[in-house]
Amino acid sequence: MLKKGKYRCIWVIISVAAFIFSVSVFCYAADISGEIDALKDSDPIKRAAAAKALGKAGDAGAVEPLIEALKAENESEEENDRVEKYIIIALGELKDARAVDILLAVISESEEGEEELDEDEEDYVQEAAINALGAIGDKRAVDEIKEIMEETKSAKVNRAAKKALEKLK
Questions:
Q1: Domain limits of the chain?
Q2: Which has more pLDDT, 25 or 168?
Q3: How confident is the model at residue 78 (pLDDT cuts 50, 70, 90)?
Q4: In terms of CATH architecture, what is 2-168?
Q5: What is the pLDDT of residue 115?
Q6: Measured distance between the N- and C-terminal CA atoms of the chain, rounded to whole angstroms
């Protein structure tokens, strides 16, 4: 008699846990779509917060929207380097090779000085992109990172490049 009650109790606990898990998965998916929508918001603080949340969420479904948001940020006349940095960090956290091309483009733009960022802002963006490339681990980034190491005057960017190259070995 005790065994039946004990097993029934365990079964109830497992059922409740499964229900809670399924509800949390459903809510989680809804939150991701809200954050993806927030990437297009006119408020840069909301865009940065959305990018940060998407990186932490770890959902591969956020990669393409983040890439599109980074492209839009780069093309905007009111480009916000902090938003760009958070998008880049999120792409690094997701560790998806689909982001490599846009991250390499960001590094190239920073290198060529096409953007009108001051040196500190440029360093933050470049450092974030290099860290993201190191986290993703795609060997296509090696030559570009080596080139940056040779050309940069920033100790911060140089340290990030060294760490990324170690990860890419």
A1: 2-168
A2: 168
A3: confident
A4: Alpha Horseshoe (1.25)
A5: 44
A6: 62
